[in-house]
Amino acid sequence: MQMTFRWYGSNDDKIKLSEIRQIPGCKGIVGALFDIPVGEVWPKERIAALKMQVEDAGLKLEVIESVNIHDDIKIGLPSRDKYIENYIQTIRNLAEYGIKVICYNFMPIFDWVRTDLAYELPDGSTDLAFEHKKVEGDPSDIIKSVEDSSNGYVLPGWEPERLAQVKQLFKDYSGVDEEKLAANMEYFLQAIIPVCEQVGIKMAIHPDDPPRPLFGLPRLFKNREDMLRIVKMYDSPYNGFTFCTGSLGENPKNDVPALIREFGDKIPFVHARNIKFLTDGDFHESAHLSSEGSLDMYEIMKALHDVGFDGYMRPDHGRMIWGETGRPGYGLYDRALGITYLNGLWEALEKGSDKPNKPSAVHSSAQ
Ligand code: DNO
């Protein structure tokens, strides 16, 4: 397992690479070129510069989150072929610079959705929360509330240029139901996965967050059935999942460790985070520690360990603690605590794994 940390680049992240380097056991950065408009080819010089910057700080750059998918591909417009060609060129360019995993999502219009970016927890820290009643109305209300409470930062998937066209996008998606979206995803995967196989990059789709249809838009990655369908679209180790424990765990019907055991060989990248259920499917996020949330992080790490997970992991959204201000979900301190905890669980699993007969060993030495 290689522990990593998401970083938004020196222009957009107030967290410095040198600070990330000091988190014990953090080996790499999950990065992206956030300013390249969706659909355009990522130029080699820019990828090279980012890689050099990360390596100069003593870290690795092997995971990209995300190369986003142009809406024309998701809608299935004739122009999709041009955007797929661009996507393929980006994959080739990234492979040249040693990238091993690309995280992406296939969510229409909105990426992850939260209704509160500064939900106050009893200890005075704040975290992200989701209340379903708040997404039953006009999507522009939620856009406004995200923009007002994001501390001036652009959140991934909530780029202003994208949000400016939201009304038009809703019109463009009007004929796209779940079946059509799935067919468009299959078309995309059929085109790109053979290239990934050639160049050695694993694609890792991120679950829908939260895992339910929103604003009448279809969603393709919510549960086990969806995962089976995605595997079937193109069965290859290069067609994999970003296993986000929080996103899948937001639906209490999803048995997160069981999903890891079933799809373990298709998981090159893990987002590890905890959430706490409120009523009616609502939830807030929490510190990573099992006892702070509703997910058993030990069982999750154990399932990963049992399936021989050797991919990349990053802590996911953290709380704002110790007076830190910054991009909601993406501060330094609580994610660093998350890493330390996850690494601790992993070390215990590693050291315990060669001692399956421990109880009888203790018994015999006591005799
Ligand atoms: C939110 C993130 C998502 C994720 C994308 C992947 O914090 O987990 O925005 O990066 O869905 O494409």
Overall description:
The chain has helices at 17-21, 44-56, 71-75, 80-96, 139-149, 160-163, 166-172, 178-199, 224-233, 245-249, 256-263, 297-306, 333-352, 358-366; strands spanning 2-6, 28-31, 60-65, 101-104, 116-120, 126-130, 202-205, 239-244, 269-272, 274-277, 283-286, 312-315. The protein is an alpha/beta fold. It has one domain: TIM Barrel (Alpha-Beta Barrel), CATH 3.20.20. The strands form two sheets. Strands 1-2-3-4-7-8-9-12 form an eight-stranded parallel beta barrel, surrounded by four helices. A four-stranded antiparallel beta sheet has the order 5-6-11-10. α4 packs parallel to α8 (178-199).
Distance between the amino and carboxyl termini: 38 Å
Name of the CATH homologous superfamily: Divalent-metal-dependent TIM barrel enzymes
Number of strands: 12
Q: Characterize the largest beta sheet: strand count, sense, and whether it forms a barrel.
A: 8 strands, parallel, barrel
Q: Given this structure, which CATH class is correct?
A: Alpha Beta
How many helices? The count is: 14
Label the CATH architecture: Alpha-Beta Barrel
Shape: globular
Q: Could you say what the CATH topology is called?
A: TIM Barrel
State which percent range the strand residues make up: 5-15%
Ligand kinds: D-mannose
Count structural domains: 1
